[in-house]
Amino acid sequence: MPHLLPVTPNLAWRTCAWGLVVICLAGALLLAINHPVSPLACLVLLCLWCCISVWQRNAWLWVLPACLPWMNFSPWTGWVVFEEFDILMLATLASAYGRIAWFGAHNNKLLLSAFVKGALLVLLASGAVALWRGVQDADRFDLDWFSGYGDALNSWRVAKSLLYATLCVPLLQTTSNTELVRRQMLFAVGVLSGLAVVVLSVVWERAAFAGVFDFSVHYRTVALFWEMHVGGAALDVYLALTAPFVIWALATARKRIVWLLAATLAVLVVYACLTTFSRGVYLAVGLPVAVLALWLCWKQDALVPTDKRPGWRARGDLVLLLVLALEVLAVLMGGSFMAERLGRTEQDLVSRMVHWRNGVGLLEGPIDWLLGKGLGRLPANYAAQVPAGEFSGTVRWQQVDTEGKEGRRKDGYVVLSGPRSTPAIAGAYALTQRVQAPLAGHHRVKIRVRVQVSTRMELYLCERHLLYDRSCLAAWGTVRPAVTPDGWQTLTMVLRGEDFDPDPWFGARLKLFSVAVSDVGGVVEVDKLQLLSPNGTDLLTNGDFAQDTAHWLGVAQSYFDPWHLDNLALEVLVERGLVGLLALVALLVYAFGQLLWGRARGQPLAPYLAAGLFAVLLVGLVSSVMDVPRVAFLFYLILFWSLLPVKFCNGSMVDCGACGQGS
Length: 663
Known about the structure:
This protein is an alpha+beta fold. Among the domains are: 1-108, no CATH class; 394-499 and 507-558, Galactose-binding domain-like (Jelly Rolls, Sandwich), CATH 2.60.120.260. The protein contains 19 helices and twelve strands. It has helices at residues 11-33, 39-55, 60-67, 74-77, 84-103, 114-137, 154-172, 177-209, 234-252, 256-274, 279-303, 311-333, 337-343, 345-360, 366-371, 378-385, 568-596, 606-619, 629-642; strands at 394-404, 407-417, 429-435, 443-450, 455-464, 469-479, 489-495, 511-517, 523-532, 553-556, 646-649, 652-655. Helix 1 (11-33) runs antiparallel to helix 2, helix 7 packs parallel to helix 19 and helix 9 packs antiparallel against helix 18.
C-alpha cells in the first residue's frame, strides 16, 4: 500500500520540527530544574518519559489524558502559573516532533479544510494578540516562578492550553482506518483512566472530610483540581467533558468483566457529579449522556435484534439503570444541602446576571470589544474596577538584599493584605501550607511581623482538603505597631481547639496551616513563620520566605467573584474579544456538523466527542472553562480532533490525505 509508506518531510517542515524540539525540551528542562519540591525526580522522570514516547509514538494518547486530572501539586509547590503537567506536555511535544524530524512523517500536511484552517488561524492570532494585550495591561512584567492571578504571567497561564492543543493537531493525523481506531481507543482508555482517578479521589475526599452518605453537610467536592483554591468549576467541566466516554466503555464492552468495570465507573461518576451539588453539572452531564445513550440504543436495535444479544447484557443494563436511579434519589432526597441550593436558584441567577454585567462592563471601547482586555486579565481588572468586587485578600513577596557571612544574598518577606472595602469578605483569603501535624498536643505559632496600624490576624491549623474545614485549631489576635527601630516584632500564639480525630483506615486526612488578615484595608508584613509541634519541631517549610513563596499557596473561601466570570462565552469575549469568540464559535459549529453529518462522523469516537463538546457548552452557560489550563487543553484537544475529516475509500475508512478517491 504505497500511501502507508513514510514520506520524507521537506526542509521547512524538518526545520520547524527541530525548532519546536529545542523550544519544548528547553522549557521542560527549565521547569524541572526549578521545581520547588523535587527537581531531581522531575529530571529523571522527564528523561524516562522522553525515551518512552520516542520509542512508543502513540503512548502519549493514553498518558496525557490519564495524568491530566492529577498532575498538579500546587498546594505543595506554591506554583500557580506553572504546573507539573506543563513538564509532561512539553516533554511529549519535544519527543513527538523529534521523532518526526528524525524519522520522517507519513504526511506533513494538515488534513483540514480551508475553512477550518482559516478559523483556526484567526483563533490563534486572536489568542496571540490577547496574550500581548494581557502582558501590556499588567503594571509590570516579572519572570517570577510564583506569579499569581494579578501578574503578567497569568496571561501565559491562560494562553498555554490553546498552544499545546494546536501543536498536537499534526500528531492526531493518521494514515489508515486501523491506526485511527487504535489511536482513538488509546485516547478513550486514557480519558477513562484519568476519570477513574478523579472519582476515586472524590470518594476518598467525601469519606475523609464529609461522609460518603451524608448529603446534608455543606461540602462540595473538588477532587484533585487544586485550581479551585479560588473557586471555579474545574471539576464540573472535567466531568461534563469526560462522562460520555463512560457510555463508550459500556457500549463497546464485550466481556463481562470489562462491562462490570465500566458499570462500576459509571456509578462512581454519577456519585462524583451528584456530590458537586452543582445544578449546571446535573444538566450538562445528564442531558448529553441521556441523549447519547438513547441514540446508541436505537442504533443497536437497528443493527442487532434484541433476541440475538447476550442475555447478561440486557440484565446488566437494567440493573445498572436501577442502581443509578436509586443513587440519584439518595442524594437528592437523602439530604438538605441540594434542596437548599435548588431553593436559591432564582436568587443565584439574579446575582449571576449582575456578575455577568459587571464582567462585560470591563470592555471600555471598540478595541476592547474587538480584541478583549487580554488573556488572564479578568481577575485583576474585575477586582480593580467593579465596586465591591475586590479580592478578599492578596499575597505579595517582597525581595530584600541582606549581608551575611557568605556575602550578599537575596531574602524576602511576604505582604498579606485584607479586602479593600468589604467587611463581609475579610479573612476569606489566607496564605496556606500543607503540613504533617500530630493529632494531639499544643501547637504554637511564632511569627515575626511588622504593621503600620493595628491589624487583626487569624491563624488556623485545620483538617482541610482545599476549601472546607473539618476541624481546626485556631488563634486570633491584634498586631500593634512595634516600638523597635525597624518596626519588626516577634509574637507567639497558641493554637487552641480540640484534638484532631484519629485518621481513618484508608489514609491520613490532609492538614493545612493558614494565616490571614481579617481587617478591611489591613496590611501585615511577615518575615518569618514557625508552626511548632508539641515537641518543639517546626512543621513549616520555607517559613522564612527565603525561597519566595515556594510551598505556600493563597486560598480563598466562600467568595470567588473576581477570579471567574462563570460563563464560557463571556469569559472569551472579555479576554479575547469578538474576534476570538466568533472564531471559537465557528470551529464548534463546524465540529458538530462534521461529527454528526459530515466527514468526521466516521471516527470511532464521533458521537462521544460530540456529546462531550455539547456538555461543555451546557456547563459553560453558568461556569468558566478557559481559566483552568488542564481542562481547557482537553477541551481544545477534543475539539481539534473533531475537525479532522475521514473519508470512505473503496469501502474502508481512511484519512482524506491517505486516499485520492472521494466517498
